[in-house]
Amino acid sequence: MAKVGNIEVEVQIIEKTKEMILERGFKGWNMDDLAFESGVAKRTLYKIIGKKEELIARIYLDNTRRTISNVKELLNSNKEYKEMLYEFSEEFPRYISAFALKTMVQLRREFPQIGSSIDELIGYQVETFKKLYQRGIDQGIFRSELNGALIVETINSLIRHFIQSGRSEAEFEKDLTLVLHSAFKGFM
Questions:
Q1: Of 50, 148, 183, 187, which has the most beta carbons under 10 Å away?
Q2: pLDDT tens per residue, range 138-157
Q3: Is 107 in contact with 56 (CB distance < 8 Å)?
Q4: pLDDT of 46-82, one tens digit each?
């Protein structure tokens, strides 16, 4: 029997939710379906997860937090600046989950408030990236006429474009990696 606070049950529910979103979209299932397919009583499901929209928000915001954490770990490494940029270009596309790639456009259309919450969470990181890129300018690695904000805006636009492009996971990783490498070289 599923109990509130059981992490394994929560993970099972989240994974089943992702499956259902991929198979049926956001509107093609309800909490009754999720309870049945997860093997959890509906009442217990609501105690564990809350409402459907809260569950969807949790999945995407947790995914965004994981991506941000991975990026911060990479950026805080003690690597030489150019090596860190190269590694960022190689690793960042892998941090974006296949699930997010396949569903993000639909999420933003059907749940714009969740999309706004994701943007807000990412927005909190902008200053970190501005400082990082400004460091590259100050060290003479990036062109002096640039500024951190302009580089952030450019990189974010590229990333958003590729997320919304509908590419397969392999194409996304390959193409975004190439474009990030090219962009950073262009800033030099």
A1: 148
A2: 999 999 999 999 999 999 89
A3: yes
A4: 888 889 999 999 999 998 898 888 888 888 888 899 9
Per residue in 94-120, is it b (16+ CB within 10 Å) or e — as a string?
ebbbebbbebbeebbeebeebbeebee
DSSP states along 101-156: HHHHHHHHHH-HHHHHHHHHHHHTTHHHHHHHHHHHHHTTSS-TT--HHHHHHHHH
The first and second tokens of residue 130, run together, are 């501005």
pTM of the model: 0.81
Length of the chain counted residue by residue: 188
Alpha-carbon torsion, ordered 153, 155, 159, 161, to 10 deg? 60
**For residue 187, which phi and psi values (nearest 5 degrees)?**
-75, -15
Decide: 154 and 98 in contact? Cβ < 8 Å.
Answer: no
What would the two tokens of residue 187 be?
Answer: 């800033």
Write down the residue that tokens 């002096």 correspond to: 144
Cβ atoms of 88 and 179 within 8 Å: the answer is no
Burial category of 59 from C-beta neighbours within 10 Å (exposed 0-12, middle 13-18, buried 19 and up): buried
